[in-house]
């Protein structure tokens, strides 16, 4: 018996082999299929994908053989990797290199051997694809050619496996980076929202006081700055979800006029404060329902309108909504936002939807995050929609959105008709007094919420920690409870879960700065009926309360 000498490039060969990170890994179907096919083609009982390291030959696939490795000093493959072509031993008992080899005279009785070296592009040979029989024999030319081809496929599989593993490592690294980014954004969002709630709420309370107009002007600046920070936080979260493809379409049937109600009231107030006019022209019948992602659609309309209002100091902002219906239930929802702002120059227009493109025309005092339009663009791509911009410098801009949708016509119930006809007065209408609990460890947050609830027939009780909140709810009956989530002593979700088994329990509002989608889902699943992110939007709060007032007047 002769032991095969080491290849001249042994160091490079071992380095390449270890770089594959394949040694001692479990069996894989793609390699097992190669050895099974080789066995069938060559009519051989044993076929192996054999890799040679410093001391052994290790089998990535071992068809017809139980062993996973043998000593390198005994390996036929150690001889095969010294050449470039098929290494064939018709009868090992007649070959001086192998006739005293234990693998020949003992199990598995290797008499016939044919192995093709598995060579990388730089001719580094990692091992072989080989077939083995227990009797002397030959392979015909067709079998030899097929073995060569299978050898090439095995090398490709080794390379593909390496590339796949590399991609998997990069994917895991990207996932860890995304998780770290999500955690960072969630923490920053929470830490910013709580003080913003106080800042925006208090600025509104101050503005309601009989103070000089000059002071009102300063308060407006504070409120504007706070809203810019809030929009930046919201846009950062939204963009993060879109870029991760964590955002998914949630199509549902909804009535567009009801969606536009809060939107119309909000921008009526915003434009009134800026002494410009806001007009909404909705040509979609009240009996028409759309099938689309309601939340994304609202985000698109709000972002485009907020941009228009921000940049318009004289004149008006107009929103025109209509359907381009087709012969069947398919249609295009058209949204046009037109302003009389400064307009957009051609060089700015070309990069308008790029991330962090902060377009600040002359006369605009406070810039935005530079994320709103990129969010609109990404959301429209998800919805198979499109957006076009027409603008003249000094005259204004028009943004036209087209979104494919499905529509149907249904008559509204009397309750729904009432809901769509109270645009001028969106204050909830309760016919009886309600007992309400406000639980928050931050006194300013409690004051802000109390101020919003002041016009309503509510008897309000306050609590400043979780333990006190649980005690008060256990000793008295309440109609509505506004619970902060992260209170000292007891978490808001724990309180909600404990109340879920009670026969009579208040309607629960989750008031929180935890606003990531997964946080919202977790909070609502703990037993809350409503989710109210900080800083509170009065219009959203009143919309929820109006819904409650209809069910529990």
Automatic annotation (TrEMBL):
Ranges for domain Response regulatory come to: 435-549
Which reaction(s) does its UniProt entry say it catalyses? ATP + protein L-histidine = ADP + protein N-phospho-L-histidine
Q: Which Pfam families match?
A: GAF, HATPase_c, HisKA, Response_reg
Which UniProt keywords are present, listed alphabetically?
Answer: Kinase, Phosphoprotein, Transferase
Gene3D superfamilies recorded? 1.10.287.130, 3.30.450.40, 3.40.50.2300, Histidine kinase-like ATPase, C-terminal domain
Provide the E.C. number(s) assigned to this enzyme: 2.7.13.3
Q: Which residues carry this modification: 4-aspartylphosphate?
A: 484
Q: Which domain of life is it from?
A: Bacteria
Indicate the segments forming the Histidine kinase domain, all copies.
Answer: 187-407
Q: List the Gene Ontology MF annotations in alphabetical order.
A: kinase activity
Q: Spell out the PANTHER family in the cross-references.
A: HISTIDINE KINASE CONTAINING CHEY-HOMOLOGOUS RECEIVER DOMAIN AND PAS DOMAIN-RELATED, TWO-COMPONENT HISTIDINE PROTEIN KINASE
Its protein name is: histidine kinase
């Amino acid at each position: 018996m002769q032991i095969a000498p080491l290849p001249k490039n042994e160091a490079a060969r071992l380095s390449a082999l270890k770089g594959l990170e394949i040694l001692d890994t479990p069996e894989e179907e793609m390699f097992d299929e190669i050895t099974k096919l080789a066995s069938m083609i060559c009519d051989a009982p044993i076929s192996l994908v054999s890799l040679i390291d410093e001391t052994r030959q290790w089998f990535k696939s071992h068809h017809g053989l139980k062993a996973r490795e043998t000593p390198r000093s005994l390996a036929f493959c150690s001889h095969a990797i010294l050449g470039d072509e098929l290494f064939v031993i018709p009868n090992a008992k007649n070959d001086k290199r192998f006739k005293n080899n234990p693998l020949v005279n003992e199990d598995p009785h290797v008499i016939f051997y044919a192995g093709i070296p598995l060579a990388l592009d730089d001719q580094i040979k990692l091992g072989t694809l080989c077939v083995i029989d227990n009797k002397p024999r030959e392979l015909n030319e067709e079998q030899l050619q097929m073995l060569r081809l299978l050898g090439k496929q095995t090398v490709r599989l080794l390379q593909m496996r390496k590339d796949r593993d590399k991609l998997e490592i990069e994917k895991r690294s990207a996932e860890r980076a995304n998780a770290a980014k999500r955690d960072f954004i969630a923490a920053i969002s929470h830490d910013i929202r709580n003080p913003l709630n106080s800042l925006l709420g208090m600025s509104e309370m101050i503005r309601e006081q009989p103070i000089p107009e000059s002071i009102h002007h300063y308060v407006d600046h504070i409120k504007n700055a706070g809203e810019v920070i809030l929009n930046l936080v919201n846009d950062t979260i939204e963009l993060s979800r879109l870029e991760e493809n964590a955002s998914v379409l949630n199509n549902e049937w909804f009535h567009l006029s009801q969606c536009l109600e809060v939107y119309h009231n909000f921008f009526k107030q915003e434009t009134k404060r800026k002494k410009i006019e806001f007009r909404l022209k909705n040509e979609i019948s009240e009996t028409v329902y759309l099938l689309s992602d309601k939340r994304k659609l609202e985000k698109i309309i709000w972002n485009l309108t907020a941009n228009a209002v921000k940049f318009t100091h004289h004149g008006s902002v107009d929103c025109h909504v209509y359907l381009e219906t087709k012969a069947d239930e398919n249609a295009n929802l058209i949204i046009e936002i037109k302003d009389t702002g400064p307009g957009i120059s051609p060089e700015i227009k070309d990069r308008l939807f790029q991330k962090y493109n902060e377009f600040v025309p002359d006369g605009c005092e406070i810039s935005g995050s530079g994320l709103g339009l990129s969010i609109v663009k990404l959301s429209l791509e998800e919805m198979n929609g499109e957006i076009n911009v027409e603008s003249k410098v000094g005259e204004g801009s028009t943004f036209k959105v087209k979104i494919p949708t499905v529509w149907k016509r249904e008559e509204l119930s009397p309750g729904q008709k009432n809901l769509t006809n109270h645009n001028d007065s969106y204050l909830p209408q309760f016919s009886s007094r309600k007992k309400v609990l406000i639980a928050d460890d931050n006194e300013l947050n409690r004051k802000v919420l109390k101020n919003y609830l002041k016009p309503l027939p509510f008897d309000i009780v306050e609590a400043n920690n979780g333990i006190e909140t649980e005690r008060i709810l256990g000793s008295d009956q309440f109609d509505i409870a506004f619970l902060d989530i992260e209170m000292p002593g007891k978490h808001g979700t724990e309180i909600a879960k404990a109340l879920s088994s009670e026969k009579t329990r208040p309607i629960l509002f989750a008031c929180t700065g935890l606003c990531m989608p997964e946080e919202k889902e977790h909070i609502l699943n703990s037993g809350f009926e409503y989710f109210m992110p900080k800083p509170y939007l009065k219009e959203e709060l009143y919309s929820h309360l109006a819904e409650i007032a209809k069910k529990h007047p």
